[in-house]
Amino acid sequence: MKYQADDLACFSKQIEFALANYSSPKINLADYNNIILAGLGGSGIAGRIIKSLLFANCPLPVEVISDYELPAYAGKKTLAIMSSYSGNTEETLSMYAKAKANGCSIICICTGGKLAELANADGYKLYKAEAGFQPRMALGYSLSYLLLLFGEITAIDNKTELKAAAVALVNTPIYLGEGYKFFDFIKPQLPAKTIIVTDYFCNPIGLRFCQQLQENAKVEAFLHELPEVNHNVIESYYGKMDSVFFFINAGLNERTNLRFGFLKSLLEKNGNYVISIEVQPNLVNTLEVIYTLDWISLIIANHREVNSSAIHNINALKEFLGKN
After folding, report:
1. Is CATH 3.40.50.10490 what the domain over 172-304 is classified as, yes or no?
2. pTM of the predicted model, to two decimals?
3. pLDDT tens track for 74-95
């Protein structure tokens, strides 16, 4: 594989780095009413995965913000965790300034940049990641640090599962092989846009896959969540479509499972390509599925002969914003 395979294969090493470099911020849960996870793109997806994984166990409301602004309730009883791989994401820096002005407690995750400078100057806890990756290929750092932080908040030992995930993800050929199996199934339909349908738990997994397909393979990808899809989007599912469908489901709700089954039958009877992926609602299997889907995005990029590491439009936007 021509681009980024070596970077993606470092996923387990990133987890190990975070495990080795984490130190407790000594969080007192009684000091907070809510938690904000601030980040965008490859840095923001970790927060969404955390929110899904810990949905049933976190005693405080958690909000993921990917914007310039913070909600009005953000204040002295808010724990605000800022994640920006480069440390220079302008939206995250804006949220940092507002969190500081509102008296929030702040924790930062980055490789350096302006965010690290501010955190050090203001005396906030800072977790460093290793530089040299594109943000979307550095998920292991932010996700692992957040899991360790939330382990303290929820009094759940996430270290054991993180270590198990690091051991599992070392076996790259297994996940690459699974990726090729899925690719071989959908290859006759390519190039086509990808429709990803998930349940609530798997929504962040689907969003991550969308992001990787868009940035790496340069293809259109769209995310829908059940049961909401059945109240609107289903009315666009007539006939054979120029799409491939990935159904990603943790199987946690019987009624939602029925909806997946109905949609699959509806689409397949009209000749549409549907791949169903079952996810066990735990950390290790969640990361295994994400890792496999990441590989699929690189396989498709390789098939399309595009440079998955090039992000010309994103860089052009950053240059434009820098001048305005």
Report:
1. yes
2. 0.95
3. 999 999 999 999 999 999 999 9
